[in-house]
Each structure stands twice: as C-alpha cells, then as structure tokens.
Design brief:
By secondary structure, the chain is of the alpha/beta class. The protein contains eleven helices and seven strands. The radius of gyration is 17 Å and the shape is globular.
C-alpha cells in the first residue's frame, strides 16, 4: 500500500475506470479527469458513489485534454483537492477509423489532439512538481496498433507510436529525479471502442489472438498499477505489450 495522489485522464472511460479502481485499491487518492463529465449523460457520479461506499474516494475533474489551459485548471483543481500529483496515467483516447483515402482532416486532427497532444498538455503541468519532490510515475496508454500499425488507423497508429517516443525522451530527462515514464500498449479489449469495429472484421481480429479472446480492462489496470508502485523504480522508458499474444516482438 502506498499513499500517493494519482490523476487518470479519460478517467471515466472503461479502461480509465479500471485504472482508477486499481489505484485506489493500492492506497492512492485518485482524480479522474474526463471531458465526458461535461459533455454526456454519464457523469460518473454513480460509479463514484459506489466506490465511496467501499471507502475508496475518487475526485471527478472535468477537463479537455486537447486544451492546454483546461489541463492547467484541471491539475490545479486536483492538487487543491487531493495534493500534489505523484502519478499520472495518460489514458484519454479516441478513434476515427478510415483508410487514408477516406480520412478527412478533422479525423486526423481530432485523433492527434486527443491521443498525442494531450500527453504534452497534461504532463507539462505535473512534471516539475514530480522532479522537485523526487518522485513520479507517468504511464502513457498507447496501443498494439501503435506498435504494428493497423489498416484504417493512420491517425491512431501515428498518435500511439508518438506517445512512446514522448515516453522514451522524457524518461531520459527525468530518470535521475526519481520519476519513471513508461508506455503500456494494450491490444483489443472488451470496450465500446473495440465493439465499434464492424462485427465481421472484429471476429477475424479475435481469431488472430492466440489467447482466443478480448482482453479485460482490469488486466491492463493491474500492469499499470504495478508500474505506478514504488517497487517499479527501475523500470523506465519501457513499452509493455499486453495483447494476448496478438503481436509478439
Ligand atoms: N486489411 C487488408 N485489407 C482490408 C482490411 C484489412 N484489415 N480491411 C479492409 N480491407 C480491404 C477491403 O477488403 C477492401 O478491398 P477491395 O477494395 O479490394 O474490395 C478495401 O480494403 C476497402 O477499403 P475501404 O477504405 O473502403 O474500407 P472500409 O471503409 O470498408 O473500412 C475501416 C475501413 C473502417 C477502417 C475498416 O477496415 C475497419 O473498421 N477496420 C478495423 C480497424 C480497427 O481495427 N480499429 C481498431 C479500433 S479499437 C482500437 O483502436 C483500440 C486499440 O488500441 C486496439
């Protein structure tokens, strides 16, 4: 158990929730940052209340990871409610799948802004505090498709590969200050994002997974939880595949 403050972007998405839950179970006070808190019906309050009944507190922070100033406000709010952010999990992400011939500028820009610019926009507001305090854990949630490329995902694969470039560069900058930076690259999971892939295509994808099923978000969260722990101090600049054997390299 460790008393740390964690912020998870995309924190009320399916993977984000699993990561928040995992970190609270490890003793963290957690802020879930999500644009959905302002834009759609599920404001996460039911989920928050359920966890609170188990004695696990999550702060819900509305914010737009594509907007640098919005991220500054979100981090300031999290820090005033919970304390300095020790752990950041950059998990916010979207898809706009289309082969390049059909992909419009909006579909490129939205995916690059949400999946890659976001990593700069949020990390920038926590990194100096982490290095000054001599402790920090940053985990960037990338994708199998950032490692191997995927038909219909020039935007997403580029953004997800870019995240790991950021990871490796920043890991070198902050390694001596007690801050680790790692990438986790999940494969296909049982989330709405994956279920949006047309049925026939998804069935063929699942056939390619040696484990023979989609992943569970809690399986990803367990790995993220470990990378955020004090024990993971010697792991930095790494990219962890967690994909049921879908792509081995
Ligand atoms: N590989 C090779 N060829 C393919 C293909 C594939 N995966 N998919 C389609 N094609 C071929 C078709 O057979 C067709 O060929 P012909 O022209 O010879 O008939 C041609 O490409 C069709 O091309 P289109 O651009 O017209 O394709 P489309 O518009 O029908 O569909 C698509 C494109 C929407 C991207 C669709 O292929 C698709 O949904 N693919 C899955 C993308 C995917 O895996 N997304 C993952 C989302 S979840 C996620 O991203 C989470 C994570 O991190 C893992």
């Amino acid at each position: 158990m460790f008393e740390r403050v964690a912020m998870v972007t995309g924190g009320i998405g399916e993977l984000g929730r699993s990561i928040c839950e995992r970190l609270t179970r490890q003793g963290c006070r957690v802020a879930a940052l999500d644009i959905a808190l302002t834009t759609n019906g599920d404001d996460g309050r039911g989920w928050q209340a359920g966890l609170a009944r188990e004695g696990r507190d999550i702060a819900l922070i509305a914010g737009d990871v594509t907007d640098f100033d919005s991220c500054a406000h979100a981090v300031a709010r999290a820090e005033s409610e919970l304390g300095p952010v020790d752990i950041l999990v950059n998990c916010a992400g979207i898809t706009r799948d289309a082969s390049l011939g059909k992909l419009d500028k909006g579909g490129w820009d939205a995916v690059l802004a949400t999946n890659l610019d976001s990593v700069f926009n949020v990390t920038k507001h926590v990194i100096d505090g982490m290095t000054q305090r001599g402790f920090g854990r940053i985990v960037n949630i990338s994708s199998l498709n950032g490692v191997k490329g995927q038909f219909g995902q020039t935007n997403y694969s580029a953004a997800k590969a870019g995240m790991h470039g950021f990871t490796m560069a920043l890991a070198r900058e902050v390694a001596r200050k007690g801050v680790t930076v790692n990438t986790v690259s999940p494969g296909y999971m049982n989330t709405r994002m994956v279920e949006a892939v047309p049925r026939g295509i998804l069935d063929r994808i699942v056939e390619e997974i040696p484990v023979g099923r989609l992943g569970d978000t809690r399986e990803i969260a367990a790995l993220v939880g470990f990378l955020c722990s004090d024990e993971a101090a010697f792991i930095t600049g790494a990219n962890y595949s967690i994909n049921g054997g879908h792509h081995m390299h």
